[in-house]
């Protein structure tokens, strides 16, 4: 192992470094209640460093990679503590000339946790130490944002192998790490927690860095924000870790789905694949997962059966409805804020039988009354972010208002329902009217009324004599047809005058609407002869024929109409709807059919004279 091991083994040497001697002014203080010693770049030197002799936690905070004073180095070398020690170096400059000295001190038997943050390592890792028969207390080692100015001149750090086995927790964050030799993993026999977030690991390097022979006790692995692209490679590499229960793959681009269903270990419980540009979750998820984070992806649906899932974080996606509750029978914590939800129904939430915590704010809700009432009903039970994160997206007048602040009247609340009822009611009434009209022939009457209006508008026009085909149109009741056909027609048509009469039985055009036949017959006849009888005044047809005939004359002085009373009819017997007949009988002379034969000759003479006029 050579240069590829430098960044990995370097951390083990950091807590054994030699701090450069400087004249910078430092000050240390002890908080007795916590045994915490804090040294910062202020005061008059480190003459008070001995006050920290009883401390178990040391924090050295510099300013822009300041050098740590010699006094503190000497103090730490001579420190003989039976208590476990934690040391934190922040924003300091570190060299490697003290490693040889520190390895021969008793500090290694007390230092249990070592943290380096935002610092610079200026050494080259050249030391010569022996680790056999040494008690090493270090269990937790953390490096965050460390710069190694002479990285490519580093010596091999093979001498640190003996310090790897005791480690339980290791975090190497933002260290530009691109590879960990497989031999390192093999040496870490007790490591359970490994955080390699925000480094430069790629797919190929991952298969080497996390080889199957290494990390036999690894339970928690965090790979957040590296350069991984192939989910299939990640799955094939990590599924061999039999004790892995927690995996963080967030902040990668896994938009290309794997070609196979990834088969994770049964022990897998916590999975974070947030901000990974996922559009679907098919083939990605371990079936036995208990805590799942899918936040900040591009999911529009989520329909996966996860029977052991207890916590689901799926905020900032594109979901428009809650996922189906039967897919997660044991769900207790549910975060679906920042999606595209339009409503939050109490019944949908209550389908999650074991749900204890729900966050559903940050959606653009449709602020109709049903939504407001439902949220109010469930807010005291499980909705923890109510009301400050719940805003209206519609209607327009409520946009950006808090859902809780929307107070609608009963009319506003049920506006859509009322409109629907009105529309449905109107349609029902229309259907009923159509059925009634159909059964009662109302459409026929309406059509006839329209014809009557058309005829009335033509009343002032001159009659076109060139279209006259008949001397008279005979209007009579069907009950009087025998008299008309056997007496009236022979007398007029067989007479020397040979009058041409129009009767509906023989002259109406077959298949044509009867009112069109009536109107056309009246229009092509010089006269209209009405046979008035008790049957006539009880006939609606006769009434309409009388009405239509009026268009041929605008005032009663016109003699177009001839009235023949077939039998005596008192005027008071004539129905009021025959108002035109009343008016005509009052102002025009009408003929009466005599029962005596000797008077009938005079009747026919008068009728012929009227028809010829």
**Derived structural class:** alpha/beta
Major sheet: size, sense and barrel closure? 15 strands, mixed
- What fraction of residues sit in β-strands? 15-25%
Rg, Å, rounded:
53 Å
The stretches of 5 or more residues where confidence is low (pLDDT under 50) are 1-23, 552-557
Identify the notable features of this structure and list them briefly:
613 residues; alpha/beta; Rossmann fold; 15-stranded mixed sheet; 5-stranded parallel sheet; 28% helix; disordered N terminus
Gist?
The chain has helices at 6-14, 70-78, 99-102, 182-187, 203-209, 231-238, 346-350, 369-378, 410-413, 415-439, 442-457, 481-493, 504-507, 514-523, 534-537, 540-549, 579-587, 597-612; strands spanning 27-31, 36-40, 57-67, 85-94, 111-121, 140-148, 169-173, 193-195, 220-222, 246-248, 270-272, 291-293, 311-313, 333-335, 357-359, 364-366, 391-394, 470-475, 501-502, 525-532, 561-565, 591-592. It is of the alpha/beta class and 613 residues long.
């Amino acid at each position: 192992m050579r240069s590829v091991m430098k960044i990995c083994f370097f951390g083990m040497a950091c807590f054994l470094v030699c701090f450069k001697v400087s004249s910078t002014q430092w000050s240390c203080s002890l908080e007795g209640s916590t045994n915490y010693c804090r040294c910062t770049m202020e005061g008059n030197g480190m003459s008070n460093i001995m006050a920290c002799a009883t401390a178990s936690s040391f924090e050295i905070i510099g300013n822009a990679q300041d050098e740590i004073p010699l006094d503190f180095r000497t103090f730490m070398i001579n420190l003989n503590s039976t208590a476990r020690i934690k040391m934190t170096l922040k924003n300091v400059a570190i060299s490697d000339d003290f490693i040889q000295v520190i390895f021969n001190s008793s500090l290694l038997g007390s230092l249990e946790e070592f943290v380096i943050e935002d610092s610079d390592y200026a050494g080259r890792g050249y030391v010569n130490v022996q680790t056999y028969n040494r008690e090493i207390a270090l269990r937790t080692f953390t490096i965050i944002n460390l710069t190694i100015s002479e990285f490519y001149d580093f010596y091999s750090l093979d001498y640190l192998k003996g310090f790897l086995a005791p480690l339980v927790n290791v975090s190497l964050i933002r260290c530009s790490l691109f590879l960990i030799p497989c031999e390192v993993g093999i040496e870490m026999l007790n490591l359970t927690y490994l955080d390699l977030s925000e480094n430069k690991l790629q797919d190929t390097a991952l298969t080497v860095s996390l080889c199957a022979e290494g990390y036999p006790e690894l339970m928690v692995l965090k790979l957040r924000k590296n350069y991984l692209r192939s989910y299939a490679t990640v799955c094939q590499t990590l599924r061999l870790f039999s004790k892995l229960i927690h995996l963080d793959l967030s902040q990668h681009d896994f938009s290309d789905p794997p070609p196979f269903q990834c088969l994770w270990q049964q022990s897998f419980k916590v999975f974070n694949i947030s901000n990974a540009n996922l559009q679907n979750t098919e083939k990605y998820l371990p079936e036995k997962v208990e805590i799942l984070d899918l936040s900040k992806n591009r999911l529009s649906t989520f329909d996966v059966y996860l029977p052991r899932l207890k916590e689901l974080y799926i905020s900032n996606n594109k979901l428009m409805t809650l996922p189906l509750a039967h897919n997660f029978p044991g769900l207790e914590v549910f975060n679906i804020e920042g999606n595209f939800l339009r409503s939050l129904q109490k019944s949908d939430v209550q389908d999650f039988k074991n749900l204890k915590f729900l966050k559903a704010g940050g959606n653009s809700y449709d602020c109709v009354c049903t939504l407001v009432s439902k949220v109010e009903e469930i807010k005291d039970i499980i909705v923890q972010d109510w009301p400050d994160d719940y805003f209206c997206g519609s209607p327009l007048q409520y946009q950006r208002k808090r859902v809780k602040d929307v107070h609608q009247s009963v009319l506003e609340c049920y506006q859509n329902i009322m409109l629907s009822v009105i529309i449905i009611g109107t349609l029902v009434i229309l259907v009923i009217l159509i059925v009634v009209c159909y059964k009662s022939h109302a459409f026929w009457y309406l059509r006839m009324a329209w014809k009557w209006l058309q005829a009335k508008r033509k009343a002032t026009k001159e009659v076109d004599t060139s279209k006259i085909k008949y001397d008279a149109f005979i209007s009579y009741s069907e009950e009087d047809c025998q008299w008309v056909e056997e007496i009236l027609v022979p007398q007029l048509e067989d007479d020397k005058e040979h009058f041409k009469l129009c009767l509906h039985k023989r002259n109406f055009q077959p298949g044509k609407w009867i009112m069109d036949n009536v109107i056309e017959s009246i229009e092509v006849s010089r006269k209209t002869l009405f046979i008035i009888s008790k049957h006539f005044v009880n006939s609606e047809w006769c009434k309409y024929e009388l009405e239509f005939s009026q268009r041929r004359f605008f005032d009663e002085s016109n003699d177009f109409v001839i009235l023949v009373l077939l039998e005596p009819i008192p005027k008071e017997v004539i129905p009021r709807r025959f108002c035109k007949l009343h008016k005509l009988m009052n102002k025009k002379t009408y003929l009466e059919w005599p029962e005596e034969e000797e008077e009938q000759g005079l009747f026919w003479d008068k009728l012929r004279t009227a028809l010829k006029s």
